[in-house]
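Most newcomers find our protein records easier to grasp once they have seen one. Each record describes a single protein and holds just a pair of labelled lines. A learned vocabulary of local backbone shapes supplies the integers on the structure line. Nothing more is needed to start thinking about how sequence determines fold. The record below serves as our worked example for the rest of this section.
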Amino acid sequence: MIEPALRRRIVAGALAVAVATSASAASAAGLYFSDRGVRPVGRAGAFVAGADDLGAIWYNPAGIAFAGETVLADFSWLRFRSTYQRRSLVRDPATGDEVVQGSNYFPEVEGTSPVLPLPTVAVSNRLGLDEKWNFAASVMAPYSALTSYPETDMQHRGRTVPPPQRYSLVTLDGSALAVIGLTASYKPSDKFALGAGLQMLTGTFASRLAFNACPPQALLCAQEDPQYDAYTQLKVGPIFAPSANAGFIAIVSDSPGAQLRIGGSFQLPFWVNSPASTKIRLPSAAVFRDAYVEGDQARVSFRLPAIARLGLETRLGEKKQTRLEVAVFYEAWSMHDRITIKPAGDGIRLRNVTGFPDPYEVGELAQARGFRDTFSIHGGVEHEFDAGGYPMALRAGASYERSAVPPEYLSVLTVDLDKIQIAAGSSLWVAQKRNLRLDAVIGYTFGFTTDVDPRSAKITKVKVVRANDPAEQDQTKINGGRYTAGAMLLGVGLVWKY
């Protein structure tokens, strides 16, 4: 029979991972694998100094000063795909030394995203004021990858094996997020504009993953024995996370054949402090027959990063029909240093655990994230011309972004690699007054293949809480191996000046 204290630690660990990973899923969905907006993505995100329609709401709110009274609606599909080939450390039975378990032992798993339109809808109006002022309301979905991986057993080299990534993630299906915003701009002269906006990240995160409750000493079972897997269904929300941004655009030089613009913006962090609920299916092993969890409510708090953007655009030609912009973004992901989880309501308790106080209250938990500040460089070009009496524009761009996740903290829950994005797009004005524009874009983000050496990997299976001896904790690393990722983006949209 399992020792009562050990049994208590196993069940408490299952509960801890259920609550902690609800927050992890939220931060994972906060990672943006692509720039956003049909026209801005066509310029690979180089849309800071040259922002002049409602796509500016995210990149530089000063840009709505040049948008007039318009309606923007666009929809994109981010087809994300990733692969993971796990490697781990095992002990040589002859020497006791740790050695790398080859990737041939684990099957490669593939993560995919659903066919889900990502909308941007915005409208601007001067509210009866003069042309120096403009105001906008918007709703937009983050361009994040909601990934699903295998959940059922797999065939690999003649063996039936459980999916190797299950302790990090099974699926993020059921997540739905939107950023609601109100923005205002002021243009005191033709050569200078200011803008600022208030934003609210709202919606829910959902995730499913497994936790293995085999004791570290492996007295009862083999490590990662599927009979000791506890599955957790997690939901964080409703989320109401405030933020704000501000920016400027200045025309520093303007001559008949050329114009030079500079623009900058700053996005405050999103402060997330939201309720979470958990459902836990305890393992099928006999030792869990009598234990159960009472209470399922918690509060999850963390921060998503502040972002600074700076761009320089030149417009060339008699009608300034050719535009070239270079922009630099800086994202302060290091402020996403930890996630705090506090039981809410009547708390979360373990019940009917033999040999331990009944009930056993679970206290506050904290989870380190290990993220780092990152940067990206964006370049884009746009050219307008006449096509048989219809004004058209073609655009293209490329960008490079360093991952916000150091390799040792990389996992399938947060697949954020160093990456390059290339994109191309077009616009067609279909009305003589140029008051109706149709947009399209295609882009692809190439993630750099990353190998995480199991010796340097830092993500362990979630440790059972309040163990009597920290040395007994399971230190098995679950994020070693090879990661690949990429995403295709397709989008269409329209802009109507009313």
